[in-house]
Amino acid sequence: MSEDEKIVSVKLKRGDWEVDIKCPESKVKKIVDDVISGIDKNTKNNTGSDIPAIPKSVTKHQTRKKYATCRELLDVLYSDSWFSSERTLSDVHEELASRGYNYDKTSISHSLVDMVKETILTRVGSMRNYRYIQKRPPT
Questions:
Q1: CA distance 35 to 56
Q2: Cα–Cα distance between 13 and 20 in angstroms, integer?
Q3: Which of 5, 58, 120, 129 is the most buried (most CB within 10 A)?
């Protein structure tokens, strides 16, 4: 290594591992490859598989609550007063999709009908052209 060679700092995250590396610029690739292979060997030995461990750091997807059913999602929309104005089935489908949940329209329709039967929502319009609106404000 020459005195003119620049020292670089690299931070790696893989699984539960976080490694800070400081080395000459010319050796970064080799050292990073060595570190990654060492981490992979270690995670293979600890987990019994060659799949790296899932990181424990909180990601965007972990911060939002996971809902199990379409109905639970519709209840959230209702509690957010999203149904305070008339909404079509397509509106509901698009809103759920924009929140990252891709239920088919049949499931959404069945859940909406259940909410109408429970007098949470009311349905206006004609067949195949219904609009849903909250019957009373959420508590």
A1: 20
A2: 9
A3: 120
74 by Cβ neighbours in 10 Å (0-12 / 13-18 / 19+) ranks as buried
Query: Does the predicted model carry a pTM greater than 0.90?
Result: no
Alpha helices in the chain (DSSP H): 28-47, 60-63, 70-79, 89-98, 105-117
* Other Cβ atoms within 10 Å of 132 Cβ, number: 26
> pLDDT tens-digit profile of 1-51?
556 778 888 888 777 778 888 888 888 888 888 888 877 776 555 545 444
- DSSP conformation class of 52: P
